[in-house]
Design goal:
The protein has one helix and 32 strands. It is an all-beta fold and 455 residues long. The strands form eight sheets. The protein has a four-stranded antiparallel β-sheet, with no helix packed on it. A four-stranded antiparallel β-sheet has the order 2-3-4-5, with no helix packed on it. A four-stranded antiparallel β-sheet has the order 6-7-8-9, with no helix packed on it. The two termini are 38 Å apart.
């Protein structure tokens, strides 16, 4: 289903490299018996004060082995290929020709303007993933269909210096910085994760084991522990400091499309093409909670987000065109959010208001009132919505689309506060700068771009 994902049984034609899916994260829990449909969270009287409180953990819980921290929205990728290309398998013909085969026709965009503060043209193929260092305003990363990742630094003159990170033999489907910005993880569709020094660009460790491509990689909120979801139906967890395998989470019956650590760092959550969401105990590898079947989704789980401060509260999206608000604490489905007509590709829970947002292939970003499970407003795009992210301390969010545009929305007024152009094909992923005023984008047009969204 849809622009971003092929059926796992699909095999890429000979001569084409596999392309990942873009936009997801997932979760898990036990059988649901009742379905309360409302969840109450009062908007704080002072957003700034609330954000200060939310982001100032007092560390009163001992880290068992993973501890507290903020969770980031997972990036989700999907593709299957029976014969992954090796590094010495060259594509014949024009080296600058597109090397992925999953674009729908008519995806070219004629941008009305070039609004990017910087354009990165290092990649030879579609750019599928990007990340911005949480600690350095000048450092971001990208990964693409050319089997390469890059570390980029942007100077005061907006000139970008790009360092190639070459270790993968298939599409780099996911990139992520660790909590302090010292390490970068890259995940590839050949099934390998690599850990790089952000300072030197040196390959520090290679993490192996999965029997299928990596759909996504996610760091623990506060420690150098890496989690990855694979096409081989499992998720893997490694100590990135010594490459030790810590756990394999097995139980899904299809690709693990999305997932991550819970915001407190004590749980692992995975969502799968098999339609289930699972919560795992990191130490034992046991599935402690499972969402599957009615009243949960009736289709693959494509994406998940975690509430920053409400323990266990998660929002999932699916190919069944709906979202589910679920509680990992109670194991219950709290609400069904139905407002899309096509696959939901991305979801986000506001940390500051009882609001959520979902983006879908139907070109809609729907903003939801979680107290009623009803839409507050619908933010229209020209084509499929690929990614979204709430801006901390505000009722505003960013969204990207296959229409090539990057938008800033005020969800209280439903107004688009800023629309930035420049890409000539769809935007597949984006990541905010540490101050959330700028974004880096990843696109099918083989570029990454930096946009200053707020002055």
């Amino acid at each position: 289903g849809g622009i971003f994902r092929r059926d796992p049984a699909h095999t890429a034609p000979s001569g084409h490299r596999r392309s990942p899916r873009t936009a997801g994260n997932a979760v898990a829990v036990p059988e649901q018996r009742s379905t309360p449909r409302s969840f109450v969270m009062e908007p704080p009287s002072s957003i700034r004060a609330a954000m200060g409180a939310d982001h100032d953990d007092d560390g009163d819980t001992e880290p068992v082995f993973i501890d507290e921290g903020d969770c980031e929205v997972a990036l989700d990728l999907d593709e299957e290929d029976d014969a992954p290309m090796d590094s010495d398998d060259e594509i014949e013909g024009d080296p600058d020709a597109p090397i992925e085969d999953r674009d729908a026709e008519g995806t070219d965009v004629v941008p009305p303007s070039e609004d990017a503060a910087a354009v990165v043209r290092a990649h030879r193929g579609s750019v599928y993933a990007c990340a911005w260092s949480p600690t350095a305003a000048d450092c971001f990363a990208s990964g693409g269909g050319d089997d390469c990742a890059y570390l980029h630094r942007i100077g005061p003159d907006r000139a970008v210096t790009s360092t190639p990170l070459k270790a993968h033999t298939d599409t780099v489907s996911s990139v992520a910085f660790n909590h302090d910005g010292t390490l970068l993880a890259t995940g590839g569709l050949e099934g390998r994760a690599c850990i790089w020094s952000v300072t030197t660009g040196e390959l520090l460790r290679t993490l192996e084991g999965p029997g299928g491509g990596l759909e996504w990689v996610r760091w623990h909120p506060k420690g150098n522990v890496l989690l990855a979801g694979s096409e081989d139906f499992t998720a893997w967890m490694w100590n990135a400091d010594n490459a030790e395998l810590m756990q394999v989470f097995a139980g899904h019956s299809n690709s693990v499309l999305c997932g991550g650590f819970s915001p407190d760092g004590r749980g692992v959550v995975t969502g799968s093409f098999d339609g289930s969401l699972r919560i795992w105990a990191p130490r034992s590898g046991e599935c402690v909670s499972l969402f599957q079947g009615h009243p949960f989704h009736d289709g693959p789980v494509t994406c998940v987000d975690f509430h920053a401060t409400t323990p266990g509260l998660m929002l999932t999206g699916s190919e069944d065109n709906t979202c589910r608000l679920v509680s990992g604490e109670s194991g219950k489905v709290l609400g069904t959010l139905a407002g899309h007509t096509e696959t939901v590709e991305c979801v986000g829970l506001s940390a500051d208001f009882p609001f959520a947002a979902s983006g879908a292939i139907d070109a809609k970003c729907v903003v939801w009132d979680l107290n009623t499970s009803q839409p507050r407003t619908t933010l229209m795009h020209d084509k499929a919505v690929s990614a979204l992210r709430w801006i901390p301390g505000t009722a505003c969010l960013y969204s990207t689309s296959i229409d090539g545009c990057v938008r800033l929305w005020d969800t209280r007024t439903s107004q688009c506060q800023a629309a930035k152009w420049g890409h000539t094909k769809g935007v597949l992923d984006f990541a905010p700068s540490p101050d959330f005023k700028s974004l880096v984008t990843a696109s099918d047009d083989h570029t990454a771009r930096v946009f200053q969204m707020v002055q």
